[in-house]
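Section 5.1 Outputs to date
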Amino acid sequence: MPQAQSKARAQVEIHRKSGGWPGPGSRVPQPRRFRCSPGAAPPGAIPAPGYAAGMEQPSAIRPQEHAVFRSDKMGKATLFSSERILVGLNCFEGGQEHALHAHGGMDKVYYVLQGEGLFLLEGRELPMSPGVMLVAPQGVPHGIRNAGAARLVVLAILAPGP
């Protein structure tokens, strides 16, 4: 048997016995689940750390289906969270705003899924609509305003995770 095939078979055997790939502390990633707002998970969902309840990871989802709206302030829904990244939704009823703020040591990406509004930056406002993205590097003040009456849903990605 050629040496490459023998080595490959040995690695497969190590993998089978250990439950992980060869190497110290290395393991095969197992399916994970999302963590999301109460009531957003399907019946019988089993939550796991870092993920919204009831969804195998990795899987394709429709983020807007997890939107959470509040009458008193912006609604938030976490779709995924780890030490490296946080993926969530910021959900605005008409007239709501997320005031100008900045993150130290953390970059943020906003991607508009539904509705229209304004990205707030120091000294200026930029229009936002579905398909528009804004990157706010760490330390750059940013915010969002829903100046209209319709709902606004924005995907927010923060890295590293908070």
